[in-house]
Design a protein that fits this description.
The chain is 36% helix and 17% strand. The chain is α/β, with parallel strands linked by helices. It has a single domain (11-353), classed as Rossmann fold. It is globular, with a radius of gyration of 20 Å.
Length: 353
C-alpha cells in the first residue's frame, strides 16, 4: 500500500518552499485538472509560493465545459430515465437545472457509475449522460459493450466526452492566454500516457509536468517548471511515475477505440475545438442517445455576467468575476465553475477566500 506520508513530509515541503522563494521572474503556470485545483486549495499551496509564481486554473472540469444547451435538451426528454453524475444536477440550462426539472416530474436519477445506469435500463428506457475526460471514458465505453452483449437496447449514452491535449492546443492558439508551463493532469495521464503531451515543447515551446495530488507532488512540479524556464529547456516531465508511464493504459485505449471515434466538440466558454471529443461509432448507433433522440448542442450561452469562460481559459482568477460571492456561491451557483466539486470557483470559495 502506498505510504502517503512521504508525499506530505513537512521537512521536504519546507525545503522546496525555501528553494522556490529565490525565484525572481514572473511565472504563470496553469493547472489543467480540476482535482489539482482542489488539491492546491486544500493544501494551501498558493500561500506557500512567492507572489511572482501564479497557479491558475484551466478547463479541467468536465461539467464546467459542458454546454448549457445539453441541459435544455435533456429536460425535453420524455418517458425515459436520465442518469447523471451528481455534479450535473445543478448546472443551469437557459431556464432551469436538471434538479429543478426533476422537482417538476422529470425522471432524473443520480448515479455513481455507468453500471448503475445499466441496471436502471433493465426496468425502463435510460439515457446515461457520458461526461468526462479520458479518465472516465473507458468505463463508459465498456458499459456500451456490456449493453450490446446483453442486447439491452433501451440503454443509451449521450456522448459529451472531452479530450485534454486538443484543449491545450486551443488555449495556446489564443493570443490573450499567456502561460509559462502546465501542471498536467495525473488521472488523465494514466490512460493516455506521458508522450501525449510532447506537442507542448515541440510545437509551442512550453513545458509541462505530470503531477500527483499530494503537496510534494505539486511543489516538485512547480520546481521542475522553474528550472525549465531558467535554462530555456521546455520538456514533459513525469513526476507522477508511480502510476503514469510513457504509453498509458493500452487496454483502456483499446476499449475507447473500439466504441468511440474522435470528432469536433463544443466546449462551454471556449467554442468548437476540432477533434477534441469522442462520438459513438456507427456500429454502436443503437446506444447513441444523440442519434436516438435527435439531440443537438448549440453554443448560445445565456448572458448572466458570469465569467466562468474566462476562468476556464486562465484569463482571470475566480475573484475577478463580478458575481463571485456577490450572488454566485455554492448555495446559489450561477455558472458551472461554482457548481462542480472540481470547479475553479467552488475551489476558490472553499479554500482561497
Amino acid at each position: 500500500m502506498l505510504n502517503l506520508k512521504r508525499y506530505r513530509d513537512p521537512v521536504a515541503i519546507s525545503k522546496l518552499v525555501e528553494d522556490l522563494r529565490d525565484w525572481e521572474q514572473p511565472m504563470k503556470i496553469m493547472e489543467v485538472c480540476g482535482s489539482h485545483t482542489m488539491a492546491i486549495g486544500h493544501w494551501g499551496i498558493r500561500k506557500l509560493l512567492p507572489e511572482n509564481i501564479s497557479l491558475i486554473s484551466g478547463p479541467g472540469c468536465p461539467v464546467c465545459v459542458t454546454p448549457s444547451s445539453m441541459i435544455d435538451e435533456l429536460i425535453k426528454l420524455k418517458n425515459v430515465t436520465v442518469a447523471v453524475f451528481g455534479d450535473l444536477l445543478r448546472v443551469p440550462g437557459k431556464e432551469e437545472t436538471l434538479e429543478q426539472a426533476r422537482a417538476k416530474g422529470l425522471d432524473v436519477k443520480m448515479v455513481y457509475s455507468p453500471l448503475d445506469a445499466l441496471k436502471l435500463a433493465e426496468e425502463k428506457e435510460t439515457v446515461f449522460v457520458g461526461i468526462g475526460f479520458e479518465t472516465t471514458i473507458p468505463g463508459i465505453a465498456q458499459t456500451i459493450l456490456m449493453a450490446e452483449k446483453r442486447n439491452l437496447k433501451n440503454f443509451s449514452v449521450l456522448p459529451a466526452f472531452k479530450l485534454v491535449p486538443p484543449a491545450l492546443e486551443a488555449l495556446l492558439s489564443d493570443e490573450e492566454v499567456k502561460l509559462d508551463g502546465f501542471l498536467l493532469p495525473g488521472h488523465v495521464s494514466v490512460v493516455i500516457g506521458a508522450e501525449s503531451y510532447n506537442l507542448l515543447p515541440e510545437k509551442y515551446g512550453l513545458g509541462g509536468v505530470i503531477a500527483g495530488f499530494e503537496p510534494l507532488d505539486i511543489l516538485r512540479a512547480v520546481k521542475y517548471l522553474t528550472l525549465q524556464k531558467k535554462h530555456s529547456k521546455p520538456s514533459i516531465v513525469n513526476e507522477y511515475n508511480r502510476v503514469v508511464d510513457l504509453k498509458g493504459n493500452k487496454n483502456a485505449q483499446k476499449i475507447i477505440d473500439t466504441v468511440l471515434k474522435k470528432e469536433d466538440a463544443l466546449w462551454r466558454g471556449i467554442g468548437m475545438i476540432p477533434q477534441s471529443g469522442l462520438g459513438i461509432r456507427e456500429e454502436f448507433k443503437d446506444f447513441d442517445a444523440s442519434q436516438k433522440y435527435g439531440i443537438n448542442l448549440t453554443d448560445d450561452e445565456e448572458k448572466t455576467g458570469c465569467r466562468c469562460a474566462d476562468v476556464l481559459k486562465g484569463k482571470i482568477i475566480p475573484f475577478q468575476c463580478p458575481l463571485f460571492d456577490h450572488g454566485c456561491d455554492p448555495t446559489n451557483p450561477i455558472g458551472p465553475c461554482m457548481v462542480s466539486s472540481e470547479g475553479s470557483c467552488a475551489a476558490y470559495f472553499k479554500y482561497e477566500r
